[in-house]
From TrEMBL, chain A:
Membrane-traversing stretches: none
Residue ranges constituting the Transketolase-like pyrimidine-binding domain according to the UniProt record: 3-168
Protein name, as recorded: Transketolase
SUPFAM superfamilies: Thiamin diphosphate-binding fold (THDP-binding), TK C-terminal domain-like
CDD domains: TPP_PYR_DXS_TK_like
Gene3D superfamilies noted in UniProt: 3.40.50.920, 3.40.50.970
Family of this protein: Belongs to the transketolase family.
Organism encoding this protein: Anaerosporomusa subterranea
Cofactor(s) required, per the database record: thiamine diphosphate
Keywords, in A-Z order: Thiamine pyrophosphate
UniProtKB/TrEMBL annotation, chain B:
Coiled coil: none
Keywords, alphabetical: Thiamine pyrophosphate
Alphabetized Pfam families for the sequence: Transketolase_N
Keyword Hydrolase appears in the UniProt entry: no
Classification via PANTHER family: TRANSKETOLASE N-TERMINAL SECTION-RELATED (PTHR47514)
Family affiliation: Belongs to the transketolase family.
Lineage: Bacteria, Bacillati, Bacillota, Negativicutes, Acetonemataceae
Protein name from the UniProt record: Transketolase
InterPro entries per record: THDP-binding, Transketolase_N
Cofactor requirements of the protein: thiamine diphosphate
Length: 314, 281
């Protein structure tokens, strides 16, 4: 069963707005796509169309936060992080204001629009900013939980929303816990840390590797920052191989975060599945692009396989 | 008409602000934005010591008027005014920009009482002020938001995004003041990236425009009174000023955009201020 993350995001904003009158939503002419339009329909007096002017949107949100509001700002991930990076850094983050940034149609999920609209480095940008929380939901349920959490997390937060319908991998009633990596499948030979669309790919890879006699643990690391180092180390215990899989550049994303967490650890071979320092490109569908960039269950399987064999020889 | 004694008091406040800038905040060898701080001394004095509703003992007062220094590099003028108003002890002024100081190189709301936002990345203050004005309106609070912008800063595209946005949302609780000293860091604005004509641009963007002499306290107060009466749109006050005003060697001198004084220059600055002090008393 699959569900759309953007739809879940929009519905979650409405729910949150119903419970909390401080919630305000700002949009840069993409409301029909980010689904912030659902909030506009429900609470028009707390919804602000800011035009195609993302920088002003971000700084305006800072001003609203300074009067006690809890703003959510919306655009495609490539714009909501990159176009207004300085605004997010200077005013929102230095002062640690509770401004929540939605990066919609993230990663390669806006397959047709090509490199200008596909975000391969948004997580790296946001992760580098002090005080920023970085969230990558795995499915619609987690999206909903995260939106609620963002309003109460002190300081700024970034949520990365895939454009596609993704498999439901978590339960609706399950509570999202910030910074708590979640084991999706137990295993004892290797561990795959993944987030977003790559979690389902990792589960597929784990299924397949079982037939080769390799037991793979799959962990959903939907909180990229703050990353719980102790929890990550704990999850590796007993495994000699760890692979990180993400729909993002290999530079600065989850792979980097986990390498930083594991620096100095012996007896663990670390591998990566991600985008190898490349921009996106247009394609006729999302799956085609994921294959083109090697973001597949097959790629995770191959990596784990090779590394487990190497470790066995070593 | 503004009473003469009010004007005299505010001129004295502006002088005290300049004294703090020269004696406490810059001094010999210490680098600081003397020019753009002195050009806006009267504007800042008029706001903090007459126009704005605020309480140094309660900086978070809900219905206070807000002041944002979008040209955050001129922080010295705001620090001097805040210390004079009693937001923090004047001893803090001498520690400006030192490690661990309350007073950072640019305004930092997380460290300094009375600072409303982190500003200084040019072009962003007007947007922040617009967001505040919007937030105050949602809550039905009748406070005003004042934001001081540099004329060099008008080259930033975000200023015009914010100008459109404030007019679209009819933010009549927002007043922008342009410190039009005609100089940017490297020299005359008109010879570099000319932001002229200034007033017609703001008018075309839907703002009420008032042009004044930015060193004339009476004119500043009248403009701010006039802004209170404008409904349904934001107001911009274009304040013609002199960069480095009152410090003879720094007036119209781009070298003092962000410069330090030699011992000789400090003596001249002190003499300039002493002369003004004698004229004021």
């Amino acid at each position: 069963m699959t569900k759309n993350l953007r739809q879940a995001y929009g519905e979650a904003l409405v729910e949150l707005g119903r419970d909390n009158p401080s919630i305000v939503v700002l949009e840069a002419d993409l409301g029909k796509s980010t689904m912030s339009i659902l909030f506009q329909n429900a609470y028009p007096e707390r919804y602000f169309e800011m035009g195609i002017a993302e920088q002003n949107m971000a700084s305006t949100a800072a001003g609203l936060a300074l009067t006690g509001k809890i703003p959510f700002i919306n655009s495609f991930a490539v714009f909501s992080t990159g176009r207004c990076y300085d605004q997010i850094r200077q005013t929102i983050s230095i002062a640690s204001l509770n401004v929540n940034i939605c990066g919609s149609s993230a990663g390669l999920s806006d397959f047709g629009d090509g490199s200008t609209h596909q975000s391969v480095e948004d997580v790296a940008l946001m992760r580098a900013i002090p005080h920023m929380t970085v969230l990558v939901p795995v499915d619609a349920n987690e999206t909903r939980q995260m939106v609620r959490a963002m309003a109460s997390i002190p300081g700024p937060s970034y949520i990365r929303i895939n454009r596609a319908d993704l498999p439901l991998l978590t339960d609706e009633g399950e509570e999202f816990r910030l910074g708590a990596p979640r084991v999706m499948r137990q295993g004892s030979d290797a561990v795959v840390f993944a987030n977003g669309v790559m979690v389902s790919k990792a589960l597929e890879a784990a299924d397949s590797l079982k037939y080769d006699g390799i037991s793979v643990k799959v962990v959903n690391v939907s909180t990229v920052k703050p990353l719980n180092r102790e929890a990550i180390i704990q999850l590796i215990q007993g495994c000699t191989v760890a692979v990180v899989a993400e729909e993002h550049s290999l530079i600065g994303g989850l792979g980097s975060a986990i390498s930083e967490a594991l620096a100095g650890m012996r007896n663990v071979a670390l591998g990566f599945v991600g985008i190898d320092d490349l921009f996106g490109t247009s394609a006729s569908n999302y799956e085609e692009l994921l294959v083109y960039y090697g973001l597949t269950a097959e790629a995770i399987k191959d990596r784990v396989h090779k590394m487990v064999n190497q470790e066995a020889k070593a | 008409m503004v009473a003469q004694n009010v004007i005299d008091q505010l001129n004295e406040r502006a002088l005290r602000i300049r004294e703090h800038i020269v004696y406490d905040l810059i001094g010999v060898g210490k680098v600081g934005h003397l020019g753009g701080s002195c050009s806006s001394a009267e504007i800042v004095a008029a706001l903090y010591f007459h126009k704005m509703k605020h309480d140094p003992a309660n900086p978070g007062m809900r219905d206070r008027d807000r002041f944002l220094l979008s040209k955050g590099h001129a922080a010295l003028v705001q620090y001097a005014a805040l210390a004079e108003a009693g937001y923090f002890p004047k001893e803090e002024l001498k520690k400006v920009k030192s490690l661990g100081a309350m007073l950072q190189g640019h305004p930092d709301m997380t460290r300094t009482p009375g600072i409303e936002a982190n500003t200084g990345s040019l072009g962003q203050g007007l947007s922040i002020a617009g967001g505040m004005a919007l937030g105050l309106r949602i809550d039905g609070i009748a406070s005003k938001v004042y934001v001081l912008i540099g004329d060099g800063e008008l080259a930033e595209g975000q200023i015009w995004e914010a100008a459109m946005s404030a007019a679209y949302y009819k933010l009549d609780n927002l007043v922008a003041i342009v410190d039009r000293n005609n100089l940017q860091a490297t020299g005359p604005i008109c010879e570099r990236f000319d932001t002229n004509p200034v007033s017609p641009k703001w008018a075309a963007f839907g703002w009420e425009v008032i042009e004044i002499d930015g060193h004339d306290i009476g004119a500043i107060l009248s403009a701010l009174e006039q802004a209170d009466k404008i409904k349904g749109k934001p107001t911009v006050v274009i304040a013609q000023t002199v960069k480095g005003k009152c410090i003879s060697f720094a007036e119209h001198n781009p070298a003092f955009h962000n410069g330090s004084m030699t011992p000789e220059q400090l003596e001249i600055a002190k003499a300039d201020l002493l002369r003004l002090r004698r004229e004021t008393v």
